[in-house]
Amino acid sequence: MVLAITRSVIFAKVVVALTGLVMVGFIIGHTSGNLLIFVGQDAINTYAQGLKDIGAALWVVRSALIISVVLHIYYTLKLTALNKAAKPIGYKKTTYKRSTFASRNMTILGLTILFFIIYHLLHYTFQVTHPQFKDLQDSLGRHDVYNMIVAGFQNPIICIFYILGVLGLGYHLRHGIQSMIHTIGLNSDSAKKYSNLFAKLITIFAVVGLGSIPISVLIGLVGGK
Amino acid sequence: MKLKLNVWRQKDSVTEGAFENFNVNDVSEHMSFLEMLDVLNEDLITDGKEPVAFDHDCREGICGSCAMSVNGYPHGHRKGTTVCQLHMREFNDGEELWIEPFRAKGFPVIKDLVTDRSAFDRIIESGGYVSVRTGQAQDANSIPIRKENADVAMDAAACIGCGACVAACPNGAAMLFTSAKINHLNLLPQGQVEKNERTIAMVEQMQNEGFGSCTNHYECESACPKSISINFISDMNKAYIKSKAFGKAGI
Question: Mean pLDDT across the stretch B61-68?
Answer without folding.
Answer: 96
